[in-house]
Model the fold of this input.
Amino acid sequence: MVGIPLMIAATAIGVTLIYASILDAKERRVPHKTWRLALVIAVPAAVWVYGLTILADWRTAAAYLVLVAVFCGFFYFFQAVNLFGGADAYALIIITACIPFYPLEPYFGASPLGFFPFSVLTNAVLINIAAPVAIFAKNILEGNRAPVPCLLLGFPVDGRSIQNEFGFVMEDIEEAEDGRLARRFVGFTESLGRIVRGERRLYTKDLRLHPNDYQRELALYRKAGKVWISYGIPFIIPITAGFLTALFMGDILFVIMKAIAGM
Done:
């Protein structure tokens, strides 16, 4: 009986995710109003789902409500410490709160846990891993040299047009008194530390929207010739892909584990 309200919520959220992905890819911004219609449709459907589940088996309902609260709490925390973008966390929280169970039986079957948001998250992470593999291969083929993490997460672009790219700058570049440039890569640990401390990374979008505020940096990048930036695929896109694959195909990680185990 919960299948109907779950599919109503999944349809509303799925359409909104696709639209949000298009917005984020074009503008690198997803306004909060983007989710309003989905919430108007999905929240009553979710209340319907929880009500039916409580009536059928309150212990199962309580267990899933705890899972929902924990996952939503983690997503909110990750956004608060800048490990997730606001739109990414918002999308995951909405999915978690409104679609706790699989709306339909996916092609490869549901995971044993049966917690739909977990499958969405693991699928999104696995799909997102494909991008670094492709970037690494591209860097190797082009002969780009950098620490391995940088080879996986970024690539060099023309410093004269860096503001037209998408991503954040992965190098610290300074000019010495003799005019020579001193440059170093910002490692993952250092970058993560900066994020946790609330120090905002320099995005190419900042250079594009506020060039007058970054005249010094733009001059250094032009002089440097090539500057390394991260790849600019918004995480909302893997989340959307993870949502759709979890909905129709199932849990990718569970499928892989079953294949390895020969089940």
In short: DSSP finds eleven helices and four strands in the chain. The mean pLDDT is 87. The two ends are 30 Å apart (CA to CA).
